[in-house]
Design brief:
Layout: H1 2-35, E1 47-51, H2 56-67, E2 71-76, H3 79-92, E3 99-103, H4 111-122, E4 127-132, H5 149-177, E5 180-185, H6 188-191, H7 200-220, E6 225-230, H8 251-258, E7 267-268, H9 272-282, H10 286-318
Parallel strand pairs: 1-2, 1-4, 2-3, 4-5, 5-6, 6-7
Helix pairs in contact: 2-8, 4-5, 5-7
């Protein structure tokens, strides 16, 4: 009887702790998502640096930070797109935003070159915010052995090495002034889903970005630098090739949620509907999620191969 009493007390205590933990998590989520005031981003510094700034989430982030009065250092591999994006932002903000551009191809330049060019570009600028948005992966789902060397190497260089070397070049100036914010773009492929088959290298690089963010946040938080990994699920961008819908926002709609989270939790899912999706997915047993994701991407692979075959057939007929 004594053992039964002990067992009942122990299980009740554990259950109570779990309930309290979930209630506190929910209250914290509601506070952060709806009630907490966003930080004044200009207090970090007058300049924001954004990689991958000419498309998708990076471009939307550039527009959003410019609207908040921050000057911009835009980074991309395409000089024509940089010029077009710069002119677009200037026109939208009536020329009140100062913009500088830096052309870097992370897939082709080594770490030493990247650091040197970034250090030269930020010299004399009060860079308070760094947003690492540059990302790369193959066009459609493929088995690991089907992905060529150039694509694997490029994915690692852009998603991992680009983030590392740009951060390493910028962070000393933030340490010196004892303030700054770094936002790294993660992915629901690793933070929400248990696996992401047929996009293996991409998912692995994004898991690195998440862990990188967690670790350096602990290293530099006491130095006044807020480092965060923001996790989107599907957004209607050139990378995802998806049409916008209720759960697939446009980059402009998605980014409105992002800036209010800057400076707070280390890893966040900033968009409301993505956050609800994440909660639902995590409640499903991993075995079922894994099975569904594999079937989903195998279907995408089939469509991609069929499209490639049609293009090759058309090219052959023309020649």
């Amino acid at each position: 009887m004594e053992f039964l009493d002990f067992f009942m007390v122990a299980t009740s205590t554990i259950g109570f702790i779990l309930v309290c933990k979930n209630v506190l998590y929910f209250v914290k989520w509601v506070w952060g998502m709806f009630l907490r005031a966003p930080k004044n981003l200009k207090e970090y510094g007058s300049w924001a640096m954004i990689t991958g700034s000419t498309d998708g989430i990076g471009k939307a982030m550039a527009h959003e930070l410019a609207s908040k009065g921050l000057n911009l250092l835009l980074v991309s591999r395409n000089p024509k797109k940089l010029e077009a994006t710069s002119n677009e932002i200037r026109d939208k903000n009536s020329g009140n935003v100062e913009i500088k551009c830096l052309v870097i191809d992370f897939a082709k330049e080594n770490g030493e070159e990247i650091m040197k060019r970034v250090e030269e570009a930020i010299e004399g600028l009060d860079v308070g915010i760094l947003v690492n948005c540059a990302g790369w992966t193959h066009a459609y789902a493929r088995y690991f052995h089907e992905v060529d060397y150039e694509m694997i190497d490029g994915t690692i260089k852009v998603n991992v090495e680009g983030t590392i070397w740009v951060t390493k070049a910028v962070i000393p100036s933030m340490i010196k002034k004892k303030k700054g914010a770094i936002i790294n773009l993660g992915s629901g492929s690793t933070f929400v889903l248990p696996s992401y088959p047929l996009f293996t290298v991409y998912a692995a690089t994004k898991r690195f970005v998440e862990m990188f963010s967690r670790c350096i946040n602990l290293e530099y938080k006491h130095k006044g630098i807020d480092i965060q990994c923001q996790v989107p699920l599907y957004v209607s961008t050139k990378l995802t090739k998806l049409e916008s819908s209720v759960f697939v926002p446009t980059p402009e709609k998605y980014i409105k949620s992002c800036t209010r989270w800057i400076g707070y939790e280390t890893v966040v899912v900033p968009y409301l509907l993505h956050s609800l999706q994440a909660f639902t997915v995590r409640a499903i047993p991993e075995t079922f999620v894994d099975s569904y994701m594999l079937r989903y991407f195998l279907y995408g692979r089939k469509k991609g191969l069929f499209k490639d075959a049609k293009i090759k057939a058309l090219e052959t007929s023309k020649s």
